[in-house]
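From the thread on structure requests for the teaching lab: each student submitted one protein with a one-line request. Submission from student K.M.:

"Model Glycoside hydrolase from Paenibacillus sambharensis, tokens only."
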Amino acid sequence: MKPLSLSEINLRDPFILTDERTGAYYLYGTDGATAWSGKPTGFDVYISRDLVSWEGPEPAFRPDEDFWSDRHYWAPEVHQWNGRCYMFASFKSEQQTRGTSILVSDSPVGPFIPLFGGKPVTPDGWECLDGTLHADDEGQPWMVFCREWVEVKDGEMYAVRLSPDLSRADGDPILLFKASDAPWAVAVGDNKDSYITDGPYMHRLPDGELVMLWSSAGEQGYTMGLARSSGGIEGPWTQDAQPVFAKDGGHGMLFRTFEGELCLTIHIPNANPQERPVIFKVKEEGSRLVIEGQAGQ
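Reply posted by the TA:
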């Protein structure tokens, strides 16, 4: 099969795992063709050695017939934890609200098997999405996730402690902030009274400061900003006045190349089915993340 460039891959919410064991990069994301309608087949993975040429797609997750969700397979992230690969992904059905479930595999290419029978780790009855893994200063796992604006209007960001094996929530969710706290966020919806929270991703700056990339609507379309904690995961959190990326792209995450370079991947634009993964080089300048040129260009 002919290798693909990123411009040929229709994915939203890209996530790249750098695997030292295999010497390869693994790209996951929301399939653009079934992001909003149709029944997804599951999640795929693309594989690269240089971030330029990609092989695939390979099937990473295919649901059993009794899997609870039949639509909106969104934002898969794969994190390595205690020697295994854990996929955090959001799902929805006609009978059940959207939630983030956790799946596990011994390999970045899968097959990924749902933990806890596939039951979402997010609270029952809440409309939630975009769970991501965070390890606190004691090495204990947390999931950061969004409560959707379609339910609460002013989208909310939460953190919940996880059990050591990542199979379930261990405690009640803690509210970190609301979308309208960001000066750059603009209202959406029919009445222009709602604010979006999307795509959290946790990062430690060189000085140890804990920051969070997250996305919402901005003046120029889909936008990604930076929140900062003056403590640990529980905050308090403040919002940078200016976004990290403002030109109709977002849902980003950071990863390092095998050479140690820090990179950011987001999807651009936010319009379906035009969205494509894009990779930028990033520099940490003091307390700032500065986007430079595209990687591989």
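TA comment: The chain has a mean pLDDT of 96. DSSP finds one helix and 20 strands in the chain.
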